[in-house]
Amino acid sequence: MKKSLIIILLACIILTSCNSKKVELSGAGATFPLPYYNMVFNNYSETTGINVSYGGIGSGGGVRSLKDKIIDFAGTDVYLTDEEMSSMSPVIHVPTCLGAVVLSYNIPGVKELKLTSDIIADIYLGNITKWNDPRIVAINPEENLPDMLVTPVYRSDGSGTTFVFSDYMNKVNDNWSKALGSGKSLKFNTGIAAKGNPGVVGTIANMKGSIGYIGSEYAFAMNIPVAKIQNAKGQFVSPSSKSITASLSGDIPDDLRCTITNADTDGAYPISCLTWILVYKEQNYANRSLEKAQATADLLRFVLNTDSQQLTEKIHYAPLPSYIVEKALAAISSMTYNNQPIN
Amino acid sequence: MSDKIFKKLLFVSALVIMIVCGALFYSLMSGSLPAFRELGFFRFIVSSEWGMNSDGSEHYGALPFIVGTLMTSFTALLLCFPFSLPVAFFVGEYYNNTVVAKVLSTIVDLLAGIPSIVYGLWGFYVIRPFMVSLGLSEQGFGILTASIVLAIMIIPYSASLSAEFIRMVPRELKEGAYSLGATRAEMIRRVIMPNVSSGMISSYILALGRALGETMAVTMLIGNTNNVPISLSDTANTMASVIANQFGEADGLKLSSLIAIGLILFIITAIINYIGRLIIKRQSL
Lengths: 343, 285
What we know:
Helix content of chain B: over 70%
Shape of chain B: globular
Strand content of chain A: 15-25%
CATH architecture of the largest domain in chain A: 3-Layer(aba) Sandwich
Radius of gyration of chain B: 22 Å
Number of strands of chain B: 2
Distance between the termini of chain B: 38 Å
Number of domains of chain B: 2
CATH superfamily of the largest domain in chain B: MetI-like
Low-confidence stretches of chain A: none
Shape of chain A: globular
Strand content of chain B: under 5%
Structural class of chain A: alpha/beta
Number of domains of chain A: 2
Number of helices of chain A: 14
Largest interface: A-B, 35 and 30 residues
Mean pLDDT of chain B: 90
Low-confidence stretches of chain B: none
Strand order of the largest sheet of chain A: 2-1-3-11-4-8-6-7
Oligomer: heterodimer
Distance between the termini of chain A: 52 Å
Largest sheet of chain B: 2 strands, antiparallel
CATH architecture of the largest domain in chain B: Orthogonal Bundle
CATH superfamily of the largest domain in chain A: Periplasmic binding protein-like II
CATH topology of the largest domain in chain A: D-Maltodextrin-Binding Protein, domain 2
CATH class of the largest domain in chain B: Mainly Alpha
CATH class of the largest domain in chain A: Alpha Beta
């Protein structure tokens, strides 16, 4: 008995010491790009043998963990404000893909719903309460909208998804910006709240008459209908890799911090967004090794390579245009270890 | 020698528990200080504002969550009463020491062992649509739905303990009542009830303590809206559910406010448990 215990103990010690020699990367943050990261990080482990773990704990949780220096990188859908930037050591924003926030609904018999931002605002402000409201019927003449209560669903936790959605609504609707503004969590006065993208999807799928905003991949995975939204050009556009890419038209700043909602281009889906991985510019912190710093830079380059970017379309995200990839690569090149550039 | 070592070991582990409990309280205190300093302790408790205003200023208050917690817990207590009381008498008196009673009490105890997420799922897929079809609420989420599931969750706590107290009533007293010509119902009312009443109250208070802190099942059913609930069909948020919902993304003043809510919940639960213990003590004297 004692002997076997000692053997197990020894085995444990040997196993743990083995692990600590290998380079492993760990990150945490936004759930929005999680399905994409799972695929890419898996591919990365297969090609390099370096394990990458990513915890979907939410953008804010990721940033907090990075602040505490307990992870190698953080995923976020909200770029850091100047205030947050100044409270941390220099941080680099590396965009990884484009995504969209979609409005999913559960109305029996309705397959293709069109919505304008004004209608969405009035639904979330409680001014539109029935699905057969004349304003909804007016732009959806071919659908048979029932006399059913509208229940907006929103996120109970602070989230990047809420930020992107409210950033768009705040730009296009005055009543919205007066009552709710934009941010990671808002004071909604009507509707039901659920935790995380999966929670909102589950609630919509099970509740007739509900509508809610979610990260696109979660809606497509659950196969629930998604509304076409009217963009700045007046077209009703459904979210797809093409329409998301179309929303990136102009240049973006060199530090890569910007939102791309309500783009004024043809065929652009109006609630599109960038998602980022955050890393420290100076990689020597919390006793990290040079190998780890190199692996981090390597991983970021891997996420940006053509093969990984092509994957995005498979799971309803969109690849980054080449000029953004170049800017992102330039940002990665500025990473240092002990003030020396990392190869 | 080994006796001495054992004694030391016991002392150390007892000490560790005390230190952990003290440290827990200390970290809750220090974490919630910024919120109390910024918002004021009293204002924090009575304010119903929660979140960022559209102009970017932040204000947090715990009132909606305190009200939500108390409403769900006490409704659950009321709802569990008509089930747990008969179960206690069934197991502890009428069918005491029979196979039926043993099976029933095992099943009731089993209820205590089911993870709360399972209750949450069941509530979400069964109770919620049921509430909608009854027309009690539009979407089925809300205080009442959460309370029904909570009530079932706390039945084992109140029923088992109550049955235990009922069994403890001395045989001589019961037989005395019978020999005076009392029926069983009269014996229960005149002999058992006076003997066990305080014990029963304490068992319900312990069950209440459990309902106060329940998180997962409530989070899935209550609707998670930050308003002060007025009726039972309103959606709301409890102290535990708001922490579970918002902790992940919170920072700064919001994080501190959430910790402060945790502290208040800690204190409320401690007080209720203390009252329960006090009543048990009086019973056993």
